[in-house]
Amino acid sequence: MADQPLVRCERISKHFGEGETRVDALRDVSLDVFPRQLVALLGPSGSGKTTLLNIIGCILDASSGSMAFDGETVLSEGRWLKTNLRQLRLHNIGFIFQFHNLIPFLDATDNVALVLQLSGEEAGAARARAVELLDYLEVGHRRNAMPANLSGGEAQRVAIARALANRPRIILADEPTAALDSKRAGIVMDLLRKVAIEQDAAVIVVTHDEKIFDRFDRKFVLRDGRLETGDADPAKLDASAGVATVGGGAGGL
Ligand SMILES: Nc1ncnc2c1ncn2[C@@H]1O[C@H](COP(=O)(O)OP(=O)(O)OP(=O)(O)O)[C@@H](O)[C@H]1O
Ligand SMILES: [Mg+2]
């Protein structure tokens, strides 16, 4: 591929605690994700998926390893090179969390418009774009609702609109479709595909959701903190456990 990776992780390790309580959540994980790619991160519960997403999202420190965005090193030997991680996140990364994390005292529109205003957009334009995104995700009719009054699926769609509002080039999603029926899961995947193409973005999705397995360009499997070599072969996915086995050794990393 001619492009350079938009996200390059090199030998990232992360442990929590020390001594007897030490948990090695990630062990030497190396991963390249290219622009316009939709990548799935699979693996059993506790295998390190959320930990990896949080490090790529610059909201969790690594114990060791390096990371670059679009050729620019942001993490080297386990240390952040950028002092302003908040700005880095705001401008580059859209995060859809496992739980929606909406701000409880702002309505749906303002939850989405807020990130635009934080990056300097005027309030009216920010709200207009927010409503446009909410409409696209079929939750526009709930634009004045407070998060506590939204259903789980509605809140998740507002959170997705918020993650996409700033047109980030790196989109990270932790189980984005788990609360959605298959039609709405399809709308979300269509939107992520559209964003990947239009914004030249990379999309990394942690998922157990069989409904969307065939929507990804590449699938990677974490097991016990290690990324298994090569792309997962969808034909060998053990769907009942939400766990994948890896097809032939070639390709991948
Ligand atoms: N803050 C923390 N402190 C201590 N241990 C942690 C912490 N966060 C995660 N872990 C441990 O690290 C390992 C990986 O956790 P992680 O949340 O990344 O798993 P996951 O693959 O996302 O699992 P799930 O599918 O259940 O969401 C687990 O053993 C978990 O208990
Ligand atoms: Mg998780």
From TrEMBL:
Q: Which GO terms describe its cellular component?
A: plasma membrane
Residues spanning the membrane: none
One MF term from GO for this chain? Answer: ATP binding
Extract the InterPro entries matched here.
Answer: AAA+_ATPase (IPR003593), ABC_transporter-like_ATP-bd (IPR003439), ABC_transporter-like_CS (IPR017871), ABC_transpr_LolD-like (IPR015854), MacB-like_ATP-bd (IPR017911), P-loop_NTPase (IPR027417)
Keywords (A to Z) from UniProt: ATP-binding, Nucleotide-binding, Transport
Residues annotated as domain ABC transporter: 7-249
Q: Which domain of life is it from?
A: Bacteria
Which PANTHER family does the protein's record reference? ABC TRANSPORTER ABCH.1 (PTHR24220:SF86), IMPORT ATP-BINDING PROTEIN (PTHR24220)
Q: Which family does it belong to?
A: Belongs to the ABC transporter superfamily.
Protein name, entry field: Putative ABC transport system ATP-binding protein
Q: Tell me the organism.
A: Bosea thiooxidans
